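Example (one chain per record):
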Amino acid sequence: MSSTDEPYCPEAYCKSRLCCVELLAVGSLMNLAAFLVSNKLEFEFMEKRATHHAAEAAEASGLPLSGIVKSLVFINQDARPLLAVVLADTDVSRHKLERCSGSKSVRLASDVAARATTGYPTGGVPPVGHKKRIPVYIDQRVIQCDYVWCGGGARSKLVKLKTADIARLTAATVGDLATD
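Predicted structure:
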């Protein structure tokens, strides 16, 4: 906040369809919008009907499935969470994620565990700005894209981010995670 207690809106970075100042006042988007603004990222939010799965999000938004990423929380053998980010037209290979993360085993986290870790509901989990810092693993196909649409902090929002920003801000490990 500035000395006048007005939310800071850096116009050069506010590429959203919704002003970032307005987003700061909206539920779970508050943390994500604040994170994006404070890190001076280029971003764009899109509203859509509430969805839980990537295919539904693509249909609701009119975006191609290949232009959306899934941010999925997994739990390893030590009950530690980790995040896998893959293009929505692929799935995470648990075996590849285990190899990439050095885990003996991984399983998909429950909706409750995913929300407790990230601060966001499944179907709206972004790849950045989580409640708790967790290791992030990004599929190499994602990094080949300049921008991707991601969970926008709520099931009714998507956010467009640069993949380079996602990798940088999360200190992500890039590898082959997707099923063939």
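Caption: The domain at 46-175 is CATH 3.90.960.10 (YbaK protein).
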